[in-house]
Design goal:
homodimer; alpha/beta; Aspartate Aminotransferase, domain 2; Aspartate Aminotransferase, domain 1; 7-stranded mixed beta sheet; 10 helices
């Protein structure tokens, strides 16, 4: 791994080597996992073929998928009342599938909207039935999470939908809501980055391509008691019950195989408690760099800042463009904020080495000294 | 690649090597493609990360996806009126998505049912609206394809759905239907195995995990004029128009990257005309072995036999079990028929080397001599 130093190098970073990758997703994976996958091509273990070429009903694949399921349950401390499903279509499909399963025709669901993804989620729910905004921070461009006591909740809602980490806007819940009705969360960009108190949740979903694996698989955790409340009949593939009951269709084998490896890596590292400590330390380093100067300006209320997606601005868009370009030159990749909000975004997912954060902080300091 | 010989070996085939893989899907991939993927781990080209770890909106990924799209259009000779979409959920999701988009509430759609997959397709359509069986070969266990002149077609149908190759039942259309209404086909297990006359089709879909790549991506070809007839509004992710218009959500990057490589391999080999010649030769060798004796018995009317999935029976289930076991011992993998029908199934997809077919035929001969 090449390390950026704080003097401006004359030649750009060598991109045939692995560089520091701050991509918001698809995102950095543990190098060890990629090397393992490489070693298992073109033959996996003792099956006479690669993992991609064998039946999804074979013992060898079954072992991989069951191990991934077992590890996720272990890492989050889930009991037997939870199903772990490996679906497809990412959070975008869940925006439809959740209300399709759980929002009754004559009922309602509450949405807490704290960013771009929550906004998309409620839009899809409204195509199915009555979805209410129980709280929103849109008025201040999602710079904070509305405190729970301000939420306008309907006691008869089928569920309350939240987005516990907003990838684009850089905010994160600092608590796991527990309400009178089941909570559903889009945890895509924080999944397995911290311990979760799952007590209040009925369903937790996450696209894999942030903390969990490559794009192409969506993990859905659903509690049996919540699952039982779903509507019937439903299109077979979109009925969570189909997948809770059995392996119905051909799953995205390779993405799930990678998820299993990532979970194993995390488990060996000490699990979500250990990674949470590291994640908090990594985030604190960048936020300290932001707060230590007027040159950089965080976009989110400090109490609601994300440990995963650190968003900040520079004094001008010109400087932001220059910042991104010089960072790339030094091998600090993908620091550009989402096209819908601009600015800088450093995603500090589980697999991003702490050395990458140190390199970023050094660069921020050097850049400010040069242009501040 | 290890080759099975026709004398019974005393030690089983070495499964740390690539063996002959007759899996019906996920299925064998070209070895060259797997080796290329291996060489591109943990760094792809010049991007400082693997292909799985970069933004789906990056130039590097964009090039991969556009190349895959371009190659599919080239291989099938598709004009500008065709969209090539990379979706998720396999044929099972298409069973829902097709009627969701195209079967009007007050309209109807016709289904030609020639096997297990067609039966599943119409079941999902009936959850959406009025879906009629225009023809079926269920009465003879899908041993034939009902000729077009026997189809009971509704001239006002929104579309006619066919399954041009039935993976489980081993039958295949010998023509591309062109009717008064647009034809939709599930081409999963024959996609890119032969030239197609696309004139009569409005939509063609295929799960990748047979001829095209690993599981986790579904290719949908949809004609613009057919697309325009879809219902509105639709759930965003399930609206074909969403994906025809732009890259809406995070695609399954790695599966698409592999599809691009497989298409490139096929193009270099001479395209669908060249592979079709090879596929016909491969299939003929196995069917000749079946027809040359009373020991083996094909399950499908010779005129409707599949070049991709060759299904046959032995005199008893005991002999079938023994056949599968001895074949495995010699390194001929995954010859067991689908659990719903039993017997033997040899899938001879594009990437299965002809030498595998020769080895199978030798084994069939040796097995009959021993047990016949």
């Amino acid at each position: 791994m090449q390390v950026a130093d704080s003097d401006t190098p004359t030649t750009p970073a060598d991109r045939t080597q692995r560089l520091y990758n701050f991509s918001a997703g698809p995102a950095v994976l543990p190098e060890q996992v990629l090397l393992e996958a490489r070693d298992e091509l073109p033959v996996y273990d003792h099956v006479g073929a690669s993992i991609m070429e064998i039946s999804h009903r074979s013992a060898a694949y079954d072992e991989v998928e069951e191990s991934a399921r077992r590890l996720i349950k272990k890492l989050l401390g889930l009991g037997d009342d939870w199903h772990v499903l490996f679906l497809q279509g990412g959070a975008s499909m869940q925006f439809h599938q959740v209300p399709l399963n759980f929002l009754p025709e004559d009922g309602t669901a509450d949405y807490v909207v704290t960013g771009r993804w929550g906004s998309k989620a409620i839009k899809e729910a409204k195509l199915i039935g009555s979805a209410r905004v129980a709280a929103s921070s849109e008025a201040d461009h999602f710079a904070h999470i509305p405190p729970e006591h301000t939420w306008d909740l309907d006691p008869d809602a089928a569920y309350v939908h939240v987005t516990t980490n907003e990838t684009v806007n850089g905010n994160q819940f600092s608590w796991d809501p527990s309400l009178d009705v089941p909570v559903v969360t889009d945890a895509s960009s924080e999944f397995l980055s911290r311990p979760m108190d799952v007590e209040g949740y009925g369903l937790i979903y996450a696209g894999a391509q942030k903390n969990l694996g490559p794009a192409g698989v969506t993990v859905v955790l659903v509690r049996e008691s919540f699952l039982e409340a779903r509507k019937q009949p439903l299109p077979t593939m979109l009925d969570y019950g189909t997948h809770a009951e059995r392996r119905f269709n051909t799953p995205p084998v390779f993405p799930i195989y990678m998820v299993e490896k990532v979970c194993r890596w995390l488990d060996e590292l000490g699990g979500v408690e250990a990674i949470h400590t590291i994640n908090q330390r990594k985030a604190k380093k960048v936020y300290n760099a932001i707060d230590g100067t007027d040159f950089y300006r965080g976009t989110v209320d400090p109490k609601d800042r994300s440990t995963m997606n650190v968003t900040f601005r520079l004094p001008s868009e010109e400087l932001e463009t220059k910042f991104i370009k010089e960072a790339e030159h030094r091998g600090l990749l993908s620091l550009k904020g989402h096209r819908s909000v601009g600015g800088i975004r450093a995603s500090l997912y589980n697999a991003l080495p702490e050395a990458a954060v140190d390199a970023l902080v050094d660069f921020m300091d050097a850049f400010e000294r040069q242009y501040g």
